[in-house]
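Re: the request from the purification team.
They wanted to know what the chain is likely to look like in 3D before they choose a buffer screen. I agreed to run a prediction and write the result into the notebook, where they can find it.
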Amino acid sequence: MNPSDHTNPAPGTDRRDFLAGMTALAGAAGLLGASERVVAGDTSFMNNVPDPLLAEKSLPEFTFALEKSPGRTLGGSYGKEATVKQLPISKGIAGVSMRLEPGVMREMHWHATAAEWAFVVSGRVRTTVVDPQGRTGIDDFGPGDIWYFPRGHGHMLQCLGQEPCQLILVFDNGYFSEFGTFSISDWLSHVPPALLAKNLGVPEATFRDFPKDEVYFAKGPVPPETPAAPLGGVQPPPLSHRHSLLSQKPFETFPGGREWRVEAKDFPISATMTGAILELAPKALRELHWHPNADEWQYLLAGRIRATLFGSRGRYREATLDAGDVGYIPQGYGHSLENVGSDPARILIVFNSGMYETVNLSQWIAGQPADVLAVNFGRPAATFDAFPKRNVFMAGD
């Protein structure tokens, strides 16, 4: 074929349509070229490169005893993390358990590669966060409250009152390490004093007694109940970083438990993450299901549960989680959660998408005609008369 046949429009073809078609072909070629450069485990899910960890003959471990890990401590304050280093399956989400004693501050810092979603388990905490437009949000949080700091926004956390606070911090990048954050003391301690003086318009001697290494946890007096105004004056951000999750009416209530949920539509700044608190009565089951659009990160706040994981090709795995343990479910993988203890279980669940999506087993089956089910399973159609006709979501004993 003549090469010109590829470039000249056929008679009667509109030139604009022809050029648009050529542009689309060029774009497709670019995508094909880009697909050769993607890496396995890319959480964008826009490629077909299998993650080697999830392509093995058996499924990998999907739980981790977070609270039993050593972490980083200062007296009674600590940070303990679960990243791909501790839990290799968790490429899409990382998490931290943090405890701050009264007056202790997780110093001013930012996260270059992850947004931060947090749940206050106990105690009270104050945060400041500065956005790229220089607007400062100052908020106080109590048990059941959550916050969200977009990627790269500078912030700090400080315990309020006379009781310690317990926080669960969740990040939308499983490779992110809490101990690799960009801290202000670490930065300033490595910049020459002359450069700092020129930058901030103060004498070099100002920095003589500043910390010489990263502080990480800074200890000071208990902050005043009413926060002072920022040095640069009050310029609040347009979207709140604070949401009170557990003070809201539960999103779902069932005989076997209840669920609170907050998506980006409820908490607009939380564009990349959705959070939930799931309560399960003893023997209750959060039914078999999968999430088409997100990975799932679980932290067991109380109780004892059995989690299952299904990954195609006959691969199936179960694990038991106790309070303080973490579980992880890759996007699209089938799973369930069941309370196997004698007390109610409470689970913090976070997804790396601002929109919640799920497909439940009962919902899937109820959406099929009886003859389809009969052919699929090789059983009489009457077998399915007793199956649920609605979405179960949560099943009791």
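For the purification team: Residues 1-36 have pLDDT under 50 and may be disordered.
Please add any questions underneath this entry.
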